[in-house]
Structures are given as C-alpha cells and as structure tokens.
Amino acid sequence: MQLHIVSMDSGLVLRTPRNDEANNHKGRNNMPSILGSGEHRYRVVENWAKLPAGWSLSDVASVAVDSKDRVYVFNRGAHPMVVLDRSGNFITSWGEGLFNRAHGLHIDADDNLYCTDDGDHTVRKCSTDGKVLLTIGIPNKPAPFMSGEPFHRCTHTALSPKGEIYVSDGYGNACVHKYTPDGKLMKTWGESGTDPGQFNIVNNI
Fold this sequence. Notes:
Elements: E1 4-8, E2 11-15, E3 34-37, E4 40-43, E5 60-65, E6 71-75, E7 81-84, E8 90-94, E9 102-107, E10 113-117, E11 122-126, E12 132-136, E13 154-159, E14 165-169, E15 175-179, E16 185-189, E17 191-192, E18 198-199
Parallel strand pairs: 17-18
Antiparallel strand pairs: 1-2, 3-4, 5-6, 6-7, 7-8, 9-10, 10-11, 11-12, 13-14, 14-15, 15-16
C-alpha cells in the first residue's frame, strides 16, 4: 500500500488510498476526518506516530519517505529528525545538536536527505542514519541581508535529473542558487520584488 504523509503545523496527516467508496459510509460516526477532494484526499490518523514516552513532534517543517517506506519527520523539537516505519512505529532519531531550525527536506533517488536549516543558513546532505555527507553554506554565518549571496535563511532544496542542487533563499534573500552535485555554486538568479524574475519570499522550490 502506498502511503502519503503530509506535514502540518500541528503534526502529521497520513494519507492512504481510499478507492472503495463504500468505505466512506461505514461507521460514519467513528470515521476519521477526510481532508481534500478528488484524488487528493487525506484521512487523519490520530496518534499515528508512536513516539517514546515524553516525546512530541514540535512544529513539523517537512516530511520525506525513503525507498523502504521509512518516514523522516524534520521538526523543530528536541529531536530534529524523527524516523518512523510505515506504521508509525519509532525507529530512531538524529540531528540533535546539529540543526538549528528545520525548514525543508528533500530525498533523492539514492535515499540521501537534503536538510535545509533556515536557522543556521545551511543545506546538509545526510545519509538515512544521519551522517553528514555535504554541507553547503557556513553554519550560523548568514550572508548580508538581500545581498543575493548564499545563504540568508534558505528554505528548501530540489534536485535536477543530473543531480544539480537548487536552493531557495529565502527569508533574508530573494533568489535561487544552483549548485553542482558536489556543492559548487554554478549560478544565482532572482531579486526582491514582484516583477518577472523577482521573488517575494522564496519559501519553497
């Protein structure tokens, strides 16, 4: 069964396929809430994430799922990366003491995680067990505000089919940066504004 996980400020929403319309009429009084419409319908599963005692998912910023259906929950709590299995069972956590403020998460075809931290102005490429493979940006050293130089509160990361890295930047900049797969800056474009080629808060890519 394919799972779709959607992050929300209050936690996680688990989406499961609901092709059998008859199920929509069973136990209506007890059925979890359904969000969305058409093909994009989401069933809220309360307490799906089974965390260790005393833990909570605080302000979930982004979520990714790897090739083994492990769910990576990038959040702004004490345990920045919480890893769950497809049933919501806790596997592990990592990133404690590493991340300042979780913002964006992208996973590539090889299960590498690109963790965008707008609090310390970096993008970190990490393995699924939390090993940092590449860091783009200088931790806790933002570029000058609206300078167009990377980074000032970068927000998200995406990859091209060739593995080139695109970073949206962000809250203290108004541009997109393109990098080689090994983290060398290739080009930057964009500036603050609302005209063509300009950005008003580059929050995602």
